[in-house]
């Protein structure tokens, strides 16, 4: 009412009613308190309790800057001769070594002085310095590193009276897309920087290694954040910030962290042994596609297709064959090809486990004893005139010929190679789209060895009569790699 009176005394009589009505409608809205859920959460308490556990890591290395610059000739005894000699011998000038520095982040997991970071942060470093939030700097030594997961374990010796604060490592398996997360690190050398965001996606494969399974987040991560922790709202480390996608070099809201479930066993092995000790199965694998699943009569598109078996490896000993589809390993279902290397790697060396495979239309149970992986080996999918007669009639845009000595020489195939060779292919064909090229050797069709064009033609005709839609081909490339391809029997 006070507001109405004030307006009434200061405006023309004709507009008093409208002003009063307007205030009557608006006043409750203006005075109403905002709903509790509209208030933004504060991460101040969480950040305050964690920031002392995050460290800045600076490295340096000496890099030779040699150049092919000949030393000028001068007369013996010339006053410039010694100057030229010093300059071109590297004491100064073009051959002089220079120091290169880099910055990263890390976090304390043990008050005794154990620190986690990225392997690429300390790559080729001659000196590693760890800078704490209280201003203390300690030199670190490398306990171990793993390039495949980009994780490194460092050790420092705390100063007398210095107390380190460690952070717990939690479970990334409980994360859900949309959960809040916090990153703390050293972007562009600005130590102690806190950013928050959400989990944008899980199980991301960015093709950086055989165990890709990244957490994607929109929390700002920039250069220098590498190796720093990604926290959940309870203050547990659930990821190690590792990579970003950015055309400019700055954050565009697409960052990736190694999940703690992958990091934990690696950290434990690096701390205990100084190296990783992963399980090994001894096979080469590739993705099961719709065409491959149909040609194998596999009920669903799942598992990892075995394209090759290492001689005398665990898989061969257990009876695994090329063309098998690994459905389960040690009780874990293999939904897609990239899951199997991680499952095998985490299996204890020497342990005998159950393996379920799909073979020629039926499920087969096997037992395999896991061996230790040689880190130089990886179980992963292989990437993406009359003398040529007799040539088969055109098959799905390909011209095929039985392998001969002249064809072996022409396509640089090994002398022990057997099968049907692709001597021509249309770029418009489905076969070309699937990756077949001239010079590829068809070793098997429908898991049957191919020794003649007649056998191949009869097999194709039989499958068409059975109303089969696809045929499974085992193809050998010039480099000797084997790959399964599923082709539709009609263009």
Overall, the morphology is elongated
What is the count of distinct domains?
Answer: 4
How is the main sheet built? 7 strands, antiparallel
Distance between the termini: 83 Å
Helices, by number, come to: 11
Q: How is the CATH topology of the largest domain named?
A: Pdz3 Domain
CATH architecture of the largest domain: Roll
Please give a quick description of this structure.
The protein has 11 helices and 27 strands. The protein is of the alpha+beta class. The N terminus is likely disordered.
Commentary on this structure:
This protein is α+β, with helices and mostly antiparallel strands and 491 residues long. It folds into four domains: 50-66 and 84-155, Thrombin, subunit H, CATH 2.40.10.120; 172-273, Thrombin, subunit H (Beta Barrel); 279-372, PDZ domain (Pdz3 Domain, Roll); 386-488, Roll (Pdz3 Domain). The chain is 19% helix and 31% strand. It contains eleven helices and 27 strands. It has helices at 2-8, 16-31, 44-50, 81-88, 260-273, 290-295, 314-318, 339-345, 405-410, 430-433, 453-465; strands spanning 54-63, 98-110, 114-117, 127-131, 137-139, 141-146, 151-155, 180-185, 193-204, 214-217, 229-231, 237-244, 255-259, 279-280, 283-287, 304-309, 325-329, 332-333, 352-359, 362-369, 371-372, 398-402, 420-425, 441-445, 448-449, 470-476, 482-488. A hairpin with a 2-residue loop joins strand 24 and strand 25 (448-449). Helix 1 packs antiparallel against helix 2 (16-31). It is elongated and about 85 Å long. The termini are far apart.
């Amino acid at each position: 009412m006070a507001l109405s009176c004030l307006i009434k005394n200061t405006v023309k009589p004709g507009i008093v009613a409208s002003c009063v009505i307007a205030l009557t409608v608006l006043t409750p809205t203006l005075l109403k308190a905002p709903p509790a859920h509209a208030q933004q959460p504060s991460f101040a308490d969480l950040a305050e309790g964690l920031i002392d556990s995050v460290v800045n890591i600076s490295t340096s290395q000496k890099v030779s800057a040699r150049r092919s610059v000949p030393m000028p000739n001068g007369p013996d005894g010339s006053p410039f001769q010694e100057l030229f000699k010093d300059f071109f011998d590297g004491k100064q000038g073009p051959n002089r070594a220079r120091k290169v520095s880099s910055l990263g982040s890390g976090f304390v997991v043990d008050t005794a002085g154990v620190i986690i970071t990225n392997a690429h942060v300390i790559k080729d470093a001659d000196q590693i310095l760890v800078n704490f939030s209280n201003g203390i700097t300690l030199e670190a030594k490398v306990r171990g590193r793993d390039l495949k997961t980009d994780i490194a374990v460092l050790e420092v010796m705390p100063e007398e009276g210095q107390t380190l604060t460690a952070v717990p490592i939690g479970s990334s398996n409980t994360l859900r897309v949309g959960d809040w997360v916090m990153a703390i690190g050293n972007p562009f050398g600005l130590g102690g920087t806190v950013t928050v965001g959400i989990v944008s996606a899980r199980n991301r494969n960015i093709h950086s290694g055989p165990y890709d399974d990244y957490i994607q987040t929109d929390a700002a991560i920039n250069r220098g954040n590498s190796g720093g922790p990604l926290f959940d709202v309870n203050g547990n480390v659930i990821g190690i910030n590792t990579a970003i996608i950015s055309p400019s070099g700055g954050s565009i809201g697409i960052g990736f962290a190694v999940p703690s479930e992958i990091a934990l066993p690696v950290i434990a092995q690096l701390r205990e042994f100084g190296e990783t000790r992963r399980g090994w199965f001894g096979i080469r694998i590739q993705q099961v596609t719709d065409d491959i699943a149909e040609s194998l009569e596999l009920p669903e598109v799942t598992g990892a297709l075995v394209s090759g078996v290492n001689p005398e490896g665990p898989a061969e000993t257990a009876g695994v064959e090329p063309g098998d589809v690994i459905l389960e390993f040690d009780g874990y279902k293999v939904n897609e090809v990239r899951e199997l290397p991680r499952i095998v790697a985490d299996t204890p060396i020497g342990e005998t486990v159950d393996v379920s495979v799909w073979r020629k239309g039926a499920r087969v149970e096997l037992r395999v004893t896991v061996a230790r992986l040689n880190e130089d080996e990886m179980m992963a999918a292989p990437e993406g005139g009359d003398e040529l007669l007799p040539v088969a009639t055109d098959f799905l845009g390909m011209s095929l010929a039985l392998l001969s000595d002249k064809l072996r020489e022409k396509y640089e195939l090994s002398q022990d190679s057997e099968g049907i060779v692709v001597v021509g292919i249309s770029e418009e064909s489905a076969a070309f789209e699937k990756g077949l090229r001239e010079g590829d050797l068809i070793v098997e069709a429908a898991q049957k060895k191919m020794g003649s064009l007649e056998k191949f033609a009869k097999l194709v005709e039989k499958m068409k009569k059975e109303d089969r839609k696809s045929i499974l081909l085992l193809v050998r490339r010039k480099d000797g790699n084997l790959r399964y391809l599923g082709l539709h029997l009609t263009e």
